[in-house]
Amino acid sequence: MTDPLKMSDPNHREDVDLAVKTKPRTQRPPLYKVLLLNDDFTPMEFVVHVLERLFSMTRAQAIEIMLTVHRKGVAVVGVFSHEIAETKVAQVMELARRQQHPLQCTMEKE
Ligand code: TYC
Fold first, then answer.
1. How far is CA 15 from CA 3, 5, 8, 18, in A?
2. Does ligand 1 come within 6 angstroms of the Cβ of 96?
3. Collapsing DSSP states into helix, strand and coil, what is residue 86?
4. What's the confidence (pLDDT) of residue 19?
């Protein structure tokens, strides 16, 4: 605004603040649950091994979660960023595939 005459024109609203405030929002990345699914063929010991090896569970924790999956059909085995969850799912599926077990692992947004 360089023309001093225009500065006093009430119809010229260039320098009028809108009474709207945007709340500052802190961005949290979405998290993903990694789910292990039950089946009738994968040996319990293999599932326990997977949970110890890939999800850093103690043997006791791994047995508990494996039995939850066995009884209920599914359990959350961890919550991660999208990239880590994808990697965990791929690692579980690869270990199962190598041993020819039908174990299934998926992820879903929390
Ligand atoms: N139901 C399997 C069995 O009786 C054990 C099992 C547990 C399989 C957990 C998969 O994610 C699973 N051998």
1. 14, 14, 11, 9
2. no
3. helix
4. 67
